[in-house]
Amino acid sequence: MRLALYCPDIPQNAGTMIRLCACLGLGVDVIEPCGFTFSDASLRRAGMDYLARAAIRRHDDFAAFETARAAAGGRLVLLTTSGDVPPHSFAFHPDDVIMVGRESAGVPPEVQALADARLRLPMVGAARSLNVAVSAAMVLHEALRQTDQFPG
Fold first, then answer.
1. Pick from 1, 70, 99, 121: most CB atoms within 10 A?
2. CB 104: neighbour CB atoms within 10 A?
3. For residue 133, what pLDDT is reported?
4. Segment (H or E) for 92
5. From CA 8, how far away is CA 14, in angstroms rounded?
6. CA distance 120 to 83
7. How far is the C-alpha of 79 from the C-alpha of 101, rounded, in Å?
8. Using alpha carbons only, how large is the chain's radius of gyration in Å?
9. pLDDT in tens, 72-94
10. What is the value of pTM for the model shown?
11. In the structure, what pLDDT confidence band is assigned to residue 63 with cuts at 50, 70 and 90?
12. Nearest CA to 8 among 100, 137, 79, 128?
C-alpha cells in the first residue's frame, strides 16, 4: 500500500503525510509540480526527522506516476469530496495506491476518470472537507485495518 500526493500545495501537509507514512511503513509518491519547493527545509517542521525514514518516490508529472503505478500494479483509490463511497464500505487491497489531491483544487477530471474508486469521508451536511493530511490518516487507518497491514 502507498499514499500518493497529487501536486501538493502546502508543505506542512505534505510533511505531515510523509511522516505518517514513515511511521506506518508505507511508501509515498509525490507527483510534481508541487506548490512549493520540495526540499528538506520546506518539509522539516511537519516532517521532523521522519523525512529520512520515508520511502519517497518523486514523479515529474501524473503521466510518469501512472506509468510507474501501472508497472507495479495496484488500484488507484482517490479520496475526493466528489466521491461516492465511504472508506468503511470499500474493500481495500494490500497493493492499493491511495491518492489525495491538491488542497486548493483536488485532481483534474482526467485523473478522476482514471481512478478505480473514488472515496469520500462522511461529514455533516455543512462541512465541505477535512484537512488533506487528516483525511489521509483516517483512510489509511481503515485500509490498514482491513488488510491487516499495521506495523509491529
1. 99
2. 10
3. 96
4. none
5. 7
6. 5
7. 7
8. 14
9. 999 999 999 999 999 999 999 99
10. 0.94
11. very high
12. 100
Residues 6+ apart with CB under 8 A from 113: none
Rounded to whole angstroms, the Cα distance separating 134 from 140 reads: 10
SS3 assignment, position 29: strand
Q: Are 59 and 30 in contact (CB under 8 A)?
A: yes
The β-bridge partners of 27 are 2, 55
Give the mean pLDDT of the chain.
92
The H helix count followed by the E strand count for the chain is: 5, 6
Q: In 1-152, which ranges are E strands? A: 2-6, 27-31, 55-59, 76-79, 97-100, 117-119
146 burial (CB, 10 Å; 0-12 / 13-18 / 19+) is middle
Coil, strand or helix: which one is 5? strand
